[in-house]
Amino acid sequence: SQQGEEDPQALSIQEGENATMNCSYKTSINNLQWYRQNSGRGLVHLILIRSNEREKHSGRLRVTLDTSKKSSSLLITASRAADTASYFCATDAWYGNQFYFGTGTSLTVIP
Amino acid sequence: EAQVTQNPRYLITVTGKKLTVTCSQNMNHEYMSWYRQDPGLGLRQIYYSMNVEVTDKGDVPEGYKVSRKEKRNFPLILESPSPNQTSLYFCASSPSSIPGGVGELFFGEGSRLTVL
Description:
The complex is a heterodimer.
Chain A lengths: L4 E3 L2 E5 L4 E6 L4 E9 L5 E8 L4 E4 L2 E6 L4 E6 L8 E9 L5 E3 L3 E6 L1
Parallel strand pairs in A: 2-11
Antiparallel strand pairs in A: 1-3, 3-8, 4-5, 4-9, 6-7, 7-8, 9-10, 9-11
Chain B lengths: L3 E4 L2 E4 L5 E7 L5 E8 L3 E10 L2 E4 L7 E2 L9 E3 L8 E8 L11 E2 L3 E5 L1
Parallel strand pairs in B: 2-11
Antiparallel strand pairs in B: 1-3, 3-8, 4-5, 4-9, 5-6, 7-8, 9-10, 9-11
């Protein structure tokens, strides 16, 4: 399975601090995406980075991709209590349209 | 409003009693897929569909069936549910695959299934 893994599994920070979570995957990809899930709810798309891109920004989010290491990181700057959620990376294999999610990082932002 | 709608949201059933979880999207998306989410395992893809009448197995298809007779609907069928299919299920859709891969997925709110 190409299922990725996020690191750390859980992260607790103070409001205003930056949060960094990492994702590793196993095989070559077309794109890598990050999603957010509030407890028990559907996932919401945050950002997509293509395999030929190294860095991408969206508001307080910064994503990096290192295809040589098969890894990505998501940085959330100036965190807010409302950022408390689980974050998942997701990849699609270069050879098809199957889609793989990581195991997720649970982020808690303390007000 | 653009959305993916799943029904039922909650269901308790017994082993062997056939059930269907419906999924409908109003965004004219070609790609649709089903996932199950279990603690510690993240989301695992069950089946996906690139277009009408085109379906493929994901990582964990055993015990499930799907059909794609219309573009907007992608029901998940459990012919003979077992307790190990107790899980939180998500349907998702995406516009035509962007060059080189699947684009942004839009998720439904989930269906929590318990099989006794």
